[in-house]
């Protein structure tokens, strides 16, 4: 038995980050307990885009084929000018893209991605999965760590991974309570049956309509049975919550400057859910003794780069790799893990903020955006994304 395999680990949170972390650690032989606050493991009903780097990570975790089996393979990423209705730019993600980056760019229902990880965790002899366990605090000593749940239960192990999302309790304690940075951006989400999707928008693409202080995204899901629709706008409303019902009237009102061809899509969903969006300022330490952070708990980001979940998957690969490489020495493994991940994950966080500005540009900025992006060749787009999708990224190097 390796030293890594002797470790017991607790993962707080059973989202994409927590389950992939559990899988990565269990594959190295660790005995892992996942504590999830919800009564069931699951994901919200919405889509997600996943880049080649996420597939590299899934391959490392042993779930690449299952993930690929549930994905939809789009032809390109498209940006439309929502004001004029003109094409701004498109980036093909066809065979040359796949050949260059070694894996596809795809879209997938979140429940399918989460389900692939869930199936693998449930089938793994080293993983125990517990629900209704809301972690509220931790204690760390020289030889181990303990988490305490809301119900007062205590779970102890050699190490703890805080994968409890954007409002992480583990992070709150670890940092002394750094503030969520609310940007005033609100996302409305819906999943539309294909028959409700306007025929002239049934494109095999991840399409983004960029408008003044707003943008919307659509792409096919679930073997083309549904379409994912996300409409985001900037607002000064401060009372928007998380995963709450949204109204068609509000969303239509926010997209008044968008061409009818795109705007009419917003009339179609019978049910909208809305989220206030936020991220956090980068921090230089994710670790307190035998406790470290992963996924949104470590580096919550706006969705504009479509990379938050991809980064959580990559974190899990890196963490598992370091635990094995440092032969179970958690202090050394956590230090090396955060050293590698901080630059890459926060590059995504800061790039996402910048992309938000680009998507929501108006006036002269809009014209500059259209001119710069419209002049780019596929090769130029690929070169710009090499750091993320290509062999220089952490997960690709680790894999
Ligand atoms: C509108 C939108 C679109 C997005 N699109 C994309 C995209 O296209 N591509 C992409 O890669 N990313 C995307 N993201 C980002 C992605 O959703 C997140 O980065 C990813 O889900 C983070 O996973 P996580 O497991 O770290 O956190 P979460 O998904 O938040 O999971 C945390 C888990 O921990 C549980 N939990 C929380 N608190 C506790 C506690 N105290 N104790 C125990 N359990 C707890 C929660 O119930 C949950 O199960 C998008 C995000 C948004 C908002």
Task: Give the SSE layout.
Blueprint: E1 8-12, H1 16-27, E2 31-35, E3 47-50, H2 52-61, H3 64-70, E4 76-81, E5 87-92, H4 95-101, E6 106-109, H5 110-123, E7 127-130, E8 135-140, E9 145-149, E10 154-157, E11 159-162, H6 169-175, E12 181-193, E13 205-211, E14 214-221, E15 226-234, E16 244-246, H7 248-254, H8 260-263, E17 272-279, E18 287-288, E19 291-293, H9 308-325, H10 330-359, H11 363-374, H12 378-389, H13 394-398
Parallel strand pairs: 1-2, 1-11, 2-7, 4-13, 11-19
Antiparallel strand pairs: 3-6, 4-5, 8-9, 9-10, 12-15, 12-17, 13-14, 14-15, 16-17, 18-19
Helix pairs in contact: 1-5, 1-9, 2-3, 2-9, 9-10
Bound molecules: flavin-adenine dinucleotide.
Number of strands: 19
What is the CATH topology?
FAD/NAD(P)-binding domain
Question: Mind telling me the C-alpha Rg?
Answer: 21 Å
CATH class category: Alpha Beta
Task: Write down the domain tally.
Answer: 1
Anisotropy-based shape:
globular
What is the count of DSSP helices, taking H or I runs of 4+ residues?
13
Strand order of the largest sheet: 5-4-13-14-15-12-17-16
Largest sheet: 8 strands, mixed
**Unreliable parts:** 392-399
Bound molecules: flavin-adenine dinucleotide
Notes on the structure:
This protein has about 400 residues and is of the alpha/beta class. The protein has one domain (about 5-180, about 280-399): FAD/NAD(P)-binding domain, CATH 3.50.50. About 35% of the residues lie in helices and about 25% in strands. It has 13 helices and 19 strands. The strands form 4 sheets. The protein has an 8-stranded mixed β-sheet with strand order 5-4-13-14-15-12-17-16. The radius of gyration is 21 Å and the shape is globular. About 50% of the residues are buried. Mean pLDDT is about 95; it is low at about 390-399. Bound molecules: flavin-adenine dinucleotide (FAD). Flavin-adenine dinucleotide (FAD) binds near residues 38 and 187.
């Amino acid at each position: 038995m390796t030293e890594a395999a002797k470790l017991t680990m607790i993962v707080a949170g059973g989202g994409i980050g927590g389950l992939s972390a559990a899988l990565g650690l269990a594959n190295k032989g660790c005995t892992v307990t996942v504590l999830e606050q919800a009564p069931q493991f699951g994901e919200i009903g919405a889509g997600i885009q996943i880049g080649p780097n996420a597939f590299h990570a899934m391959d490392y975790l042993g779930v690449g084929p299952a993930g690929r089996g549930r994905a939809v393979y789009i032809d390109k990423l498209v940006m439309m000018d929502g004001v004029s209705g003109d094409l701004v730019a498109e980036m093909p993600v066809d065979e040359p893209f796949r050949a260059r980056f070694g894996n596809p760019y795809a879209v997938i229902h979140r429940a399918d991605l989460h389900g692939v990880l869930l199936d693998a965790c449930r089938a793994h002899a080293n993983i125990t999965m517990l629900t209704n366990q809301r972690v509220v605090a931790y204690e760390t000593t020289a030889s181990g760590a303990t988490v305490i749940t809301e119900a007062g239960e205590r779970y102890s192990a050699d190490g703890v991974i805080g994968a409890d999302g954007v409002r992480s309790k583990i992070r709150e304690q670890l940092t002394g309570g750094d503030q969520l940075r609310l940007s005033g951006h609100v996302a409305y989400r819906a999943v539309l049956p294909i028959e409700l999707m306007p025929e002239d928008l049934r494109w095999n693409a991840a399409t983004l309509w960029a408008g003044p202080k707003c943008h919307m995204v659509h792409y096919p899901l679930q073997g083309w049975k549904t379409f994912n629709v996300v409409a985001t706008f900037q607002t000064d409303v401060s009372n928007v919550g998380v995963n709450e019902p949204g109204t068609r009237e509000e969303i239509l009102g926010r997209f008044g400057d968008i061409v009818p061809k795109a705007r009419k899509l917003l009339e179609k969903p019978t049910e909208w859910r809305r989220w206030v969006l936020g991220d956090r300022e980068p921090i230089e330490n994710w670790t307190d003794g035998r406790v470290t952070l992963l996924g949104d708990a470590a580096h919550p980001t706006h969705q504009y780069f479509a990379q938050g979940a991809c980064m959580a998957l990559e974190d899990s690969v890196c963490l598992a790799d370091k635990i094995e490489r440092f032969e179970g020495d958690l202090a050394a493994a956590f230090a090396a893990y955060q050293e590698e991940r901080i630059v890459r994950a926060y590059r995504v966080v800061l790039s996402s903020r910048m992309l938000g500005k680009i998507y929501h540009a108006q006036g002269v900025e809009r014209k500059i955006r259209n001119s710069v992006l419209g002049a780019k060749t596929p090769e130029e787009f690929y070169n710009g994304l090499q750091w993320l999708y290509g062999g220089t990224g952490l997960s690709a190097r680790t894999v």
